[in-house]
Structure formats: C-alpha cells, structure tokens
C-alpha cells in the first residue's frame, strides 16, 4: 500500500522539474564545499526582493533562520515571546538558547497581538510571529501586523515567519520586505520547503537589515546549505509556472477539503496555509485509523490540541481519499 502522506505540509506536487534538473546538474560539483555565501541565489533574491545581498541569510531550511535569530539575539535567561499554538519550533529554539519563554494565550486559535505586546518586558529579546501560523492556519491582516511592529520596542527582534506566505490570496498579501526596510529589528523568514517543493533539500532564507542580518550570518555554520540545494532553489525561484500551479492546486484543494469536512460535520479552522486543522474527537484514535487506511496526517497533542488533527492539502484524489476515510470512520467517532 502506498501511503498518502499529509502530515508535514509538503507540496503534493513534489519538486519542480526545473529544480530537479538544476540539482542534478549541480551534483558533480558536490565533491567540493558549497559556496558559503550562496552568491548566485543571493544575487537572484536580492534582485527579486530589491534588497542588498548582505541583507540575506541562507539557512538549512527556514528552521535554521529561527535558530540563528535566537542564537544571535538571546542570552541564557533572557525572554522570548510567541503565541500559544504558534509553530512548535519556537519553544524548542528558545529552549536551545536557555531562554525564558512565554507562550501567550491564543485568541480564536490565532495570535493575540495585543497580549503579545503586553508580554514584552525589559528582558525580552525576540518575538516569533507566524503568518499564516502552523498548525492553526490562522492569518493576521497586514494592518494589525504593521501596528504591532510599530509598537514593539526597537531593542526587541521580531521574527516574522512566512513559511506559507506563497499560499496567501492576492487580497491577503502584504509587502513585508518594505517593513524590513523600515524596521531594523525585523527578520522575515521564508522557505523553499513548501510552495517551492524542496523540503528535503533543506533551504530557506531570512531578510533583515545589514546589522541584524550580519549578526545572524555570524552565527551561521559556514557550509550550511549544499550546492544542489542552492542550485535547486535558484531554479525554483525562477519557475513562476510551478509556483502558480502549486498555489492553484492548494487553493482549490483546501476549499474542497474544508467543504468536505463541513459536510461530515467536522469543525475546521479557516486556513491561509496548505493544511487544515480539524476537530475529530479523540485525535489519537482517528489518527491511528487513518494510518490503517493508508493516510498519514499530523497529531497535535504536542500543541495541547489532542482533539484536533492537521491535514495537509494533497492532490485532488488524496483529498478525496482522506474525506472518504473520515466518512467511513464516522460511526467510530
Ligand atoms: C510556520 C513554519 N515555519 C517554519 C517551518 C520550517 O520549515 P523549513 O525548515 O523546512 O523551512 C515550518 C515547517 O513546517 C513551519 O510550519
């Protein structure tokens, strides 16, 4: 039985063909160390985003950008703020640097920015905001997010995690790079793992003004991004057709999943990402039964959400399969 993997918010299309070819072409050069400056990719990103190349930090996935931000900004005992149900790695990263952390109670499963602002104290060094957030899929409009950035004291770094930014609708999109130009304390983190389809190659990036980007780069392991990963990311960045296809597939699939869950009388949270959080009763039981039916979704008890599961939007037939499996389980729930 081929498993249907809907547990890790990967792109169901897999790698773009353009990136596969670029990575393959780069492989013979992998007997040498990679370009530690990621020159070609940074050049392309710099042109795309209209920022100097030294405002960019390449990471082994955007996870590493989160780690570098904590290493660069937080001393043991200092304070980190994020949202309850914020991406689980924020708490882990804070723990790695021995920070004191506050998970600010969520509002309607999403970030309560007023409460997060209020949680910032004298010794707060770093605030994580995911937009959209994983696993809830919740989205903060540009207006309140900008007001939050304006309210944060300049000595506090804000890491705005846009791992799922490419899935936002045109009406939801905002220009966070313009905010980076305005706020020297802002890092925007992005990834090639989701809409660009390169999760296994491990590549993401951060954008911040020169001083802050320099501090992150100073913490960065020298050869943290492999040659094939850099080549694939460059190809994917230039593959507008693949990105458009990923966006369309996700938008349609997410709507279909949401409608199907609604028909099954299962509550889900409106999502701006490539996944849906759904309330199923006993999460572990339903998770195990879906596994037995050949479908892997994500448990959320590590978020304190044992009655919810997270389902990544898949190919149309995969979405139908998960809905059919949930329908079959209905008597058991
Ligand atoms: C909100 C969020 N940020 C960051 C990441 C990290 O992804 P990666 O390290 O693959 O870029 C993820 C992955 O699931 C995520 O959900």
UniProtKB/TrEMBL annotation:
Keywords: Amino-acid biosynthesis, Aminotransferase, Histidine biosynthesis, Pyridoxal phosphate, Transferase. Residues 3-325 form the Aminotransferase class I/classII large domain. Pathway: Amino-acid biosynthesis; L-histidine biosynthesis; L-histidine from 5-phospho-alpha-D-ribose 1-diphosphate: step 7/9. The modification N6-(pyridoxal phosphate)lysine is found at residue 194. Coiled coil: none annotated. Its EC number is 2.6.1.9. The keyword Repeat does not apply. It catalyses: L-histidinol phosphate + 2-oxoglutarate = 3-(imidazol-4-yl)-2-oxopropyl phosphate + L-glutamate. It holds the Pfam family Aminotran_1_2. Belongs to the class-II pyridoxal-phosphate-dependent aminotransferase family. Histidinol-phosphate aminotransferase subfamily. HAMAP family: HisC_aminotrans_2. Homodimer. NCBIfam families: hisC. This is Histidinol-phosphate aminotransferase. It comes from Variovorax soli. The lineage of its organism: Bacteria, Pseudomonadati, Pseudomonadota, Betaproteobacteria, Burkholderiales. The gene is hisC.
């Amino acid at each position: 039985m081929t498993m249907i993997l809907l547990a890790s918010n990967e792109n169901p299309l897999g790698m773009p063909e353009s990136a596969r070819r670029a990575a393959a072409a780069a492989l013979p050069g992998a007997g040498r160390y990679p370009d530690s400056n990621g020159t070609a990719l940074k050049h392309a990103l710099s042109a795309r985003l209209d920022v100097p190349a030294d405002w960019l930090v390449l990471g082994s996935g955007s996870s590493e950008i989160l780690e570098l931000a904590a290493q660069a900004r937080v001393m043991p005992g200092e304070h980190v703020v994020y949202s309850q149900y914020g991406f689980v790695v924020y708490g882990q990263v804070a723990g790695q640097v021995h920070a004191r952390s506050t998970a600010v109670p969520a509002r309607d499963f999403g970030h309560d920015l007023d409460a997060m602002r209020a949680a910032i104290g004298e010794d707060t060094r770093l605030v994580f905001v995911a937009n959209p957030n994983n696993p809830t899929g919740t989205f903060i409009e540009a207006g309140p997010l900008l007001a939050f950035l304006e309210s944060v004291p300049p000595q506090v770094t804000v890491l705005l995690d846009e791992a799922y930014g490419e899935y936002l609708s045109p009406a939801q999109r905002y220009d966070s790079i313009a905010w980076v130009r305005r706020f020297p304390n802002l890092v925007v983190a992005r990834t090639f793992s989701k809409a660009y389809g390169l999760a296994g190659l491990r590549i993401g990036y951060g954008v911040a003004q020169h001083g802050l980007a320099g501090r992150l780069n100073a913490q960065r392991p020298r050869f943290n991004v492999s040659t094939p990963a850099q080549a694939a990311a460059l190809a994917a960045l230039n593959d507008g057709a693949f990105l458009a296809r990923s966006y369309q597939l996700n938008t349609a699939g997410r709507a279909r999943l949401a409608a199907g869950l609604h028909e099954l009388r299962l509550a889900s949270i409106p999502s701006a990402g490539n996944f849906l959080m759904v309330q199923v009763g006993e999460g572990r039981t339903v998770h195990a039964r879906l596994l037995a039916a050949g479908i892997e979704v994500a448990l959320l008890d590590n978020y304190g959400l044992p009655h919810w599961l997270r389902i990544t939007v898949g190919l149309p037939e995969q979405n139908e399969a998960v809905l059919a499996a949930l329908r079959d389980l209905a008597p058991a729930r």
